[in-house]
Amino acid sequence: MALLGAQLVITLIMISVIQKLGPHFSLAKWFLCSTGLIRYLYPTNDELRQLANIPKDRSKAKKGNKNSQNGKNVPDTFHIDRSLDVQLETAKISHLDVVHLKFYNEYQWLVDFSLYTSMVYFLTEVYQIWFPIKDEVNLSMVWCFLVILFALKFLLSLTVQYFKGEESVGERSTCIVMGFMYLLIAMIVLIVDENTLELGLETAYTSFNQSASQFLSKQGLNSSGPASKIFIKFCIAVWCAILGAVLTFPGMRIAKMHWDLLRYFRESKLKQMLLNISFALPFILVILWIKPIAKDYLTVRIFSGRNTPLLTEGTFEILRLLIVISTIIIKICLMPWYLQAYLDMAYHRTEEQKKEAGRITNIEFQKKIAAVFYYLCVVTLQYLAPLILCLYLTLMYKTLGEYQWFWLIRSDASNGTSVNDELNVTVKESMTGQDPTEDLYLTLDSLKSIFGVQVFRGVFGFATWWSCFTYFATTSVGLIYQSYFSTK
């Protein structure tokens, strides 16, 4: 039996494309350098001296405006009034500007690898339309899983930055408190009845436990199940808490940019409405898993003048996934607005400083402006990584849950016995009593059957819902914070 087949061919082709196209085209670079983003340039020492009427020290000018202390060059430092009327110059962002930014390599890898993974996934889905995958390994799921791991790794790396240094006490405390808060919320969610919140974890646990018990029994081991339900739910709750903690500051950053955009577009009601709709869409995604409000209303209730519900269960499931994907695409399309709102912080910092009394060194003032652009890739990662995480969890949920796109146009779509379940039964029946090689294949196939469709639907369905929930919750907390503590 073919274990890889066309899947391996698609993967090898994409690896070749990455080698040939990667050095010449980068979606990550295009996002930053070809979407019209403008950065602010900090004034030079000479410009600050001229504005502040500070005479230039000729002896220092001969040394390149640097003093020498203990054999080391020290930048020329002088004081200026905070209220100094400084007008910042602007410039379009170029590739040479971004290659040296903090976390640029991580940002570029995540975005570009996500693009290539989406190509592999699309080609695989098209291939399955004519040649359904039966005994082949779906390598597109491996690609998607790697994207999820990279997104989590980079989010953890950004969170770790808040635990370094003595000046990050507040950030550390916030992450820890939010982590425990999400742990409590996850524990509450996990005890909600499945008839209210359709997460599928109860069905997944039952399927996993029964399949595992049968497998262990065939191996001569007596067991009622590999793990208790309480232990599994506790592990899930801990994962939920970690994800909530690492999404805390990305959510607050997105809320800050959203708050600024609403002020910038105060005169454009259409743009404000678009921003508010995109902000509220994750909440719509969350309630799509509340069964009495969404699924029962559309797939059970029969309206007057109709003999059947509006949607079948299969159609509702695939439509729900499409809404998640559409929401993510909308937010990615709006990303240039949010990034420009972040870059505009340099201008607003300068304007706010003009209202302050006292003096500031030229180095501190220049760092205040330069730091905004220096952390552009960090902010971009905070914006994109949660969306990429949610997107590829959704794609894995669709494929491993064996949902089909054509359910949207077929009225008889249902969630009955899956193709793989029927295949497993056929394989087991046809291979019993064969030679040792086939017995080994049967054993591996039985092990594979432990993680059946219901298990994947429960695990990735809950992961998709929780990622949408934490995204909305963290951004909402950030927006509430801005509404109460913003200076404007």
From TrEMBL:
TM ranges: 140-163, 175-192, 230-252, 273-290, 318-339, 372-395, 459-481
Keyword Mitochondrion attached: no
Main location: membrane
InterPro entries listed in its UniProt record: Transmembrane_161A/B (IPR019395)
Cellular component GO terms held in the UniProt record: membrane
Membrane topology of this protein: Multi-pass membrane protein
Keywords of the record: Glycoprotein, Membrane, Signal, Transmembrane, Transmembrane helix
The keyword Membrane is assigned to this record: yes
Family listed: Belongs to the TMEM161 family.
Name under which the protein is recorded: Transmembrane protein 161B
Biological source species: Rhynchophorus ferrugineus (Red palm weevil)
